[in-house]
Amino acid sequence: MKKVYLDNAATTQIRPEVINEMVKIMSEDYGNPSSTHSFGRSSKSILELSRKTIAKLFNATSQEIIFTSGATEANNWILKSAVTDLKVQRIITSKIEHHAVLHTIEILASTYSIKVDYVKIKPDGTADINHLVELLSDNVPTLVSLMHVNNEIGSILDIEEIGKICKQHQAYFHSDTVQSIGKTTIDLQQIPVDFIVASAHKFHGPKGVGFAFIRKGLLLHPLFYGGEQEKGLRPGTESLHNIVGMTKALEISYDLLEEEKSHILNLKNYTIKQLKDNFEGLKINGNQEKTFYNILNVCMPFSEAKTSMILFNLDMKGIAVSRGSACQSGSLKPSHVLAEILNDEDIKKPSLRISFSHFNSTEDIDALIDVLKGI
Ligand code: PLP
């Protein structure tokens, strides 16, 4: 059975070039970057070269890039430090953020009794900017935390515009850029954002590594304590093979960006056409005109009875997509994102998140459609 992977917003296949680079580091460059002998110095220079390479891709400086275990850690660190170090008294966020942001903010709110305001989400899944401006008008020391690309419905936030609004209101701005890094260019000299985060496994790199961008001048304390690695901001021996793998993955992603984007966009359009031709009444969840190019979330015109079986049936035929709505495949919790934008009737129907990469082809889509037709 040919397996079909259409769940690239969850994680991605590592590029072979990245694996080769990582194997080289693991077998040859095993020195601890903190050691002063030649093995250590060699690893340290590889580490700093990686940092420089990444910084350059975003028009940032090396000092602004801190390596972490991934985006969950980076989000936790930034959000907590905004409260404890930058002394914000309020966080403005939205109900459609990733749990790495939402749950962290909930804990911060109960631990430090800060205020949390939620920007309204419009039915198309985008943030209501007028509401944000209204919320910001009351001059409380604030961090705005809004994601760049939503991981479930692919809605896009104009982070340049939000950054400018935050500046005008002297608010800090954090954006969870996990789904956009490596898939669209981000010029940090152009975009007035204070913090962004990345996770390598979302752009064909290894799992368990990512980075935080902390704009120069913002003084944060570490999330936990230990050695002097990452200027003491993120103690713990650096995972050099992962960092190098992430750097390689990012470099290739940006080298091939236009080519791969166009392939993926063609596939997404092909999928929409096939779905619409075969399933009358199918709806796209989120903004019809403008969702991120590798994410498609659809509400299938199937009866409620079929909802629980749809992912199971796809999985039996080797097709991996992600659940988009309530009570599918044994999960009892509805998607907190779809719950914000769908009406009571549509939320009961099966929604699917189909997320693409350059590794996919039209045959993958044909296989998906065939199985869906049999349901
Ligand atoms: N933020 C978003 C938008 C994500 O999609 C994910 C991954 O699921 C994360 C944060 C968490 O990233 P990580 O897997 O690096 O902890």
Written account of the structure:
- This protein is an alpha/beta fold and 375 residues long.
- It has two domains: 128 residues, Aspartate Aminotransferase, domain 1; 240 residues, Aspartate Aminotransferase, domain 2.
- It is built from 13 helices and 13 strands.
- The strands form three sheets. The chain has a seven-stranded mixed beta sheet with strand order 2-8-7-6-5-3-4, sandwiched between helices.
- The chain is globular.
- The relative contact order is 0.16.
Question: What are the SSEs and their pairings?
Answer:
Layout: E1 4-5, H1 16-28, H2 38-57, E2 65-68, H3 71-84, E3 90-94, H4 99-112, E4 115-119, H5 129-136, E5 142-145, H6 159-168, E6 172-175, E7 195-199, E8 210-214, H7 240-255, H8 257-278, E9 283-284, E10 295-299, H9 304-307, H10 310-316, E11 319-320, E12 322-323, H11 336-341, H12 344-348, E13 351-355, H13 362-373
Parallel strand pairs: 1-11, 3-4, 3-5, 5-6, 6-7
Antiparallel strand pairs: 2-8, 7-8, 9-10, 10-13, 12-13
The structure holds pyridoxal-5'-phosphate.
